[in-house]
Fold this protein.
Amino acid sequence: MPTYKGQLTSKLPNVKETIFSKMSNMATEYQAINLAQGFPDFNPDPDLLHIASKHLYANKHQYAPMPGIIELRTTIGHLVKQWYSQEYNPQTEITIVPGATAGIYAAITALIKENDEVIIFEPAYDCYVPAILLQGAKPVYVSLQHPEYKIDWGHVKRLINFKTKAIIINTPNNPTGTILSSEDLIHLREIVKNTDIVIISDEVYEHILFDGYEHQSIARFPLLAERSVIVSSFGKTLHCTGWKLGYILAPENLMLEIRKAYQYMIFSTNTPFQYAINEYLNTFPERINLNNFYGEKKNIFVHSLKTSRFKITQPQGTYFALLDYSKISDKPDTEFAEELTKTHHIASIPTSVFYRNNIDNKTLRFCFAKETNTLLAAAEILCQL
């Protein structure tokens, strides 16, 4: 293979293979139960698959409109109004994207400029910082402490200056499983009042909450919604992460700029599956609420670990649980995660990778979006440690 002989300066010199790819590859190599990467090991709803197969044979294989088919955007607008009492214009304020990561990247690319500052809360999902750095902007970190991961909004306020362009929030949060309360968003509203700060709100797990909690979307707060980009995911909600479909909501003037960038990144996304999801959402809207579905899986996994030596942090949302292994090993979490995969054949994600300074709380993230047999088999292994 020829080698490039010219001078090459990496724009992301510290970025390597994602931890998700690494641990999933290790799971395959060592034939381990994969509770690392966040995807189900079961099929989507058979009704969705039936609808999708119909649209695959309906001559809908060419480019969709750049912002997505209007039918799906209209349906999303109706649902968001029903859920959060906020109206978004399907023509100008809703865009279908190939997965939430693409939506987040498009928003950051369009709205963040060189030398801007963007506040993020860590542990943070790994797609935020690279997108910020590629714009020549600076991520400003607020580190949340295990196990509560509560935000000190007074500290956040002290970080804001004339360079602060955006704040990225993620609720329910990956990897912690925590959620932001209405009080949190009221604090945020007061902090950004009378500023030009944009909020990018990653809400891909909005339909997975437990113990009676209700999702506090940015869309519920008009004074926040008017300055916010909301990102959500059909993959998480409909158990079809491989379809790579999501959507973004934003006021018209913000969405105009986002679409300018998006049209030259990807332009449009999967046509037949957009039609399939639209029909499914209109036919079975009640199936979007996954609280009971994943609540049962959470309870199975947590209950099965009661005799283990792990300390379990109960998630408020998402399909992830954090397990503290400090009574089992004093190894760094990256080493212990690899040992679990290689020796005990169960893969997880070390949470230190979600911090810029690799803060090690001796905690691993496990995905419980799995069949019951998978969860029980994993718990049996973990209880033997």
Remarks:
- The CA atoms of residues 91 and 187 lie 31 Å apart.
- The longest helix spans residues 70-84.
